[in-house]
Amino acid sequence: MAAPLLTIELDPGPFQPLAALEGWHSQLRTRLDGLPAAESSFVGRVRPHTSAGQPLAALELEHYPGMTETQLQHLAAAAASAPEVAAVLVRHRIGRVLPGDPIVLVAVAADRRGPAQRCCQELLEALKHEAPFWKREWLADGSGHWLGGNTPL
Amino acid sequence: MAAPLLTIELDPGPFQPLAALEGWHSQLRTRLDGLPAAESSFVGRVRPHTSAGQPLAALELEHYPGMTETQLQHLAAAAASAPEVAAVLVRHRIGRVLPGDPIVLVAVAADRRGPAQRCCQELLEALKHEAPFWKREWLADGSGHWLGGNTPL
Amino acid sequence: MGHTPELRVLLFAALRERAGWRERQLAATRGATPTTVWGQLGLEPADPAATIRVAINQRFARWDSPLAGGDELAFLPPISGG
Amino acid sequence: MGHTPELRVLLFAALRERAGWRERQLAATRGATPTTVWGQLGLEPADPAATIRVAINQRFARWDSPLAGGDELAFLPPISGG
Lengths: 153, 153, 82, 82
Hints:
The complex is a heterotetramer, with two copies of chain A and two copies of chain C. By secondary structure, chain A is of the alpha+beta class. Chain A has one domain (8-144): Aldehyde Oxidoreductase, domain 3. Chain A has helices at residues 17-31, 67-79, 113-130; strands spanning 5-11, 38-45, 58-63, 85-93, 95-97, 102-110, 133-138, 144-146. In chain A, the strands form two sheets. A four-stranded mixed beta sheet of chain A has the order 1-4-6-2, sandwiched between helices. Chain A has a four-stranded antiparallel beta sheet with strand order 5-3-7-8, with no helix packed on it. The longest helix of chain A has 18 residues, at 113-130. Helix content of chain C is 17%, strand content 26%. By secondary structure, chain C is of the alpha+beta class. Chain C has one domain (6-76): Ubiquitin-like (UB roll), CATH 3.10.20.30. The chains are: A alpha+beta, C alpha+beta. Chain A binds chain D through residues 44, 62, 64, 66-67, 70-71, 92, 103-104, 124, 127-136, 146-150, and chain D through 10, 12-14, 17, 55, 58-59, 74, 76-82.
């Protein structure tokens, strides 16, 4: 059983989820024996309002250079431990992200739909709680405040 | 609460999942107030071998014109009953589908990741078991046989 | 006596191929149900309810649902979508 | 006596802003742990373990993990990724 192909990138600027998936598919076509039968993916975008309901000007994403990348690799490898999982893609924004912009993309290619869906879901939860990222909400008046945790599932 | 936007299409020829998602996003940008915060999607592709492990020449998908479309609408509406679900996309092949080709795409846009993921997963299971589609596996020697059910989850 | 509209019976996939036909028109007899029509048409297996589902006018129905003239009755082998 | 390499201490996000600094070098005293360093630096809150996590050399660690000179110690406020 070949180890799953893990592709993980932090994006300091905007990324397009569909372009990211297209590039990943090209990579899989080269590295695997064609695209696997099941592909599950998730895209998270910045809401237009703060957790307190005010209009959001931007979301700032801080990370821990070095540890964040290593930790994402660990989390992806752990979530992809089912033998059916062939490949995992993670894209995650850092820096200033505007309302409506993609902030995270997780995609999993597997030989069966169950492992694809489970791995995608588990990895998303894992990175929300176990990868060192911190969000600050910025308002139009220039004030900002750090979030104390994540949105509920 | 607006009813979720249901977009359901049967495709008699090949479709590109990423192009389908791009068209759907354009539609959502026009019809909704921007793209929702959470989007979960699933793509199923034809395996290169039959359920018995032989090389597959093609998969044929028969449906029940009229009932299949109606039933997909019912199943999508039922799976999208959570108030956070804003839109659902289903694309499903009919006719002759080649190994590696996309056969089904389900995408769900919602205000939260939980409802997006659950709706996507439930709708996929529902259409596999409750929408009138039948698969026939064709071998290179011109013989074909109808499948008696679905692959396990 | 007026003309009674007939039942339209449809078969799909393996069921259609095994029977050798896709569609038949049938007089709607009083008290007809999918079970009686299945027997009347001599379809196999003799006890279909375990594997075959029925739809009346394109909605899933029960094997003992009453049928009326003009109805579209379909016998559906095991579904394999997605 | 040789030169003892120092501890490097990092703060992130709300923690960094509250403290007013991002990084400090500190002599690694014998028996040092994240708990002793936290107290030594006078960081708030006094009982951090309920909300703050620690990483040593970029891996999650315990508040009572032993520290050695040259280690990178980071205090991490509640994570909100994804």
